[in-house]
Amino acid sequence: MKKYQLLLILLCFFLFNESFGQRGIFFELEENQKVLQKNFKLIYNSASKLPLVTNKELRRENIKIAPSYLSWIFFTSNSQYTDLFVPGDLCRFSELAANKLIKTTDRIIFEVNFDIEESSEKTQKKSYGFFKLDQLILFLKNQNICPNLDLFSESFNDENLPITTSSYELKKPANEQECETAVKKIKQDPMVAFFCGKAEEVIAADMAIVELDTNGINLNTVQKNALNKKIQRGIYIRNKVGELEASLMGQI
Prior knowledge:
Elements: H1 2-47, E1 63-65, H2 67-76, H3 79-82, H4 90-98, E2 108-118, E3 121-131, H5 133-142, H6 149-155, H7 161-167, H8 176-187, H9 192-215, H10 221-241, H11 243-251
Antiparallel strand pairs: 1-2, 2-3
């Protein structure tokens, strides 16, 4: 009997510590979120005074994405896509944002450095400014910073999608090694953000079907229309590239 009592005590002790440990982790995450959100709000409010689109003299070397902004975006975005980001690469950031793979806000916040002449010496004044996403993409194009942006986008438009998808020669992997090889190949592809953008549309359609089937009775007309729109888009892509290819894109 004592043996079982001891086991029960040990089990309760383990469960208590396990629960306490989890609460500790969740508390730490919650505190981190509060700090990140606070820092984000501070620079967001500061940047609202400086729309960068109005500065015609602005150059690439004058701006970089604010670290506090990136931290908040990466905290709220899917980690499998933030892993595709290359530090300092505005082109990759814009590609991920344009394909809705990261959760950017309505304003993308930058640290802005302007050289100022003071007493015959150059000093730098740092401030915060913002671009909206479409403004940022136009800025990058005008500055010839991302020459492939239009090409990548055109390759994955509805007209060229079947040709582009077929170039990947997607096939069902026979084993885990082939699966890993396929994923690695896509991750290293320069157009990975656009590939994943289309894959997400396929996934969103599948999830919309499930949502309608399981919870349709509780949804209003607007919600149902939004889900049906995703479903129709998924059907369109599947018809364009083929059922197998679309499924493999989603799985990759």
